[in-house]
What we know:
Layout: H1 4-16, E1 36-42, H2 48-51, H3 55-62, E2 65-73, E3 83-87, H4 91-96, E4 100-101, H5 131-137, E5 139-140, E6 143-144, E7 147-151, E8 154-159, H6 160-164, H7 166-174, H8 186-196, E9 209-212, H9 223-236, H10 258-270, H11 283-291, E10 295-301, E11 317-320, E12 327-330, E13 335-338, E14 346-348, E15 353-359, H12 364-378, H13 380-387, H14 399-402, H15 417-428, E16 433-435, H16 442-457, H17 462-480, H18 482-492
Parallel strand pairs: 1-2, 1-3, 9-10, 14-16
Antiparallel strand pairs: 3-15, 4-15, 5-6, 7-15, 8-10, 8-11, 12-13
Helix pairs in contact: 9-10, 16-17
Amino acid sequence: MRGAGFWVAAWALGLAGCGTKPEAPKRPEAPFRGVKVRVGAVGEPAILKVINPQRGEWEQTRGGTVEVVEEGVATKEAAGLDVVIFRADRLGELVDAGALATLPETVVAPSPAGRPSGGTEDSLKFTEVVPALREQVGRYGEDRMGVPLGASALVLVYRRDALTSDANREAADKAGLGALEPPDSWERLDALARFFQGRDWDGDGKLESGIALALGLDQEEGVADATFLARAASVGQHPDQYSFVFDADTMAPRVAMPPFVEALEGLKALAKCGPEGVIDFDAEKARAAFRSGEVALLIDRAERASRWAGKEVPITVGVAPLPDSKRVFDPDRKQWQDLPTRNRVSYLPVGGGWLAALGTGASSASKAAAVDFLRYLVAPDTATRVRGDVAFAMLPARGDLIGLGLPDPRSAPGVDARLWAAAVGMTLKGPRVVPGLRIPEADGYLADLARGRVAAMKGARAEAALNDVARAWDDRTNRLGRDRQAWHYRRSLNALPTPPNPPSR
């Protein structure tokens, strides 16, 4: 008979044999345990509605804590943040205030998949970010100052039934207008708006309007100024020039030159093809006019697609890029010239979109965590979640996400998702992309422009109104320091040589 010792030994051997379960692999230790990252937004705290829901996964996998400053942060306070979220037109003033740290290229370089768990695949895939956002909007000169969270782009919105109706096509043919299709030139857009104005183009027995667009002050969204500058860029952004609204050497304003005068006169003429009171419309009033079903055309920011149609008046909506031009003004020779190919220029509102950056106040303890959080915010998985979040409207920064069409077609009834994606893609990935002004007091320069533009809409001569704008810009530049502003403007163009530091104030 075998003793108890034999059975104890046999049991122990059995545990060590083939029946033993392998130990579960250890999860990597959270690299930022106990580290707090302070995140705030300059000028537009509403964007934090998109950032807030993204905190949980980062905190769980990294072990750190993200503290979001819910109220908007002033420019001077931004340096005290670890991560600064802002609209790109605030970039110059943040750089001027010394609030942002330059990001080394290693921040956006390929890294192991599943960071920090390891692997060999590139998990960030930063090259998938639209080139204009990656290499223009996120840079200031040679320095990378931020990573793109989202974008903004102007598009032409139109009633599809207005362009496809047999009755309208027949009338257009009789009027010598030719085929009814999205226009490739501003002159063609003007002709379409005139054709639809005062015509019952939807067959409801009422006379409708040709176009709705923001022409008033529109201080909240700036679509009115962006529409004017987009039209001016098609004839005023010369293929051989980097400068647009200023001379990059002298900071002399170009806003009163012929292409800008022509663009403003064109918008004044378009106002005659709009609903009553259109010269006072802001962006939302223009959308409401289109949404009512009484307007054939609209110019708006593509990210506002959910406001183009409603359940009350079901309409089918097409989307196209803004028109371009085959003629352009040479500011050096001060003369017009015809181009062999169309001057495709995409002007991007609000400086191009929204950025996340590293604050100069980040401590050595929080800096690594803040950089990791920046990478997390622009990583593919996070970008996909942000795309589907309707809490704050912005276009995806990644090209593959733009190709997927509207973030949520249910939120934009009647809008053709395929046409929307094509128009946004052609705009953001165009051959020449011009982000809106990004120098210190960019909002002040645009406020000066808005006053002159509105004066022209209300009867002042376009040239005289823009001369007033040019004088206001000169005064503002002199007050801020002409040499320093010239440094910032050249820096914002990303392609002209500048010293590493601005001239003294």
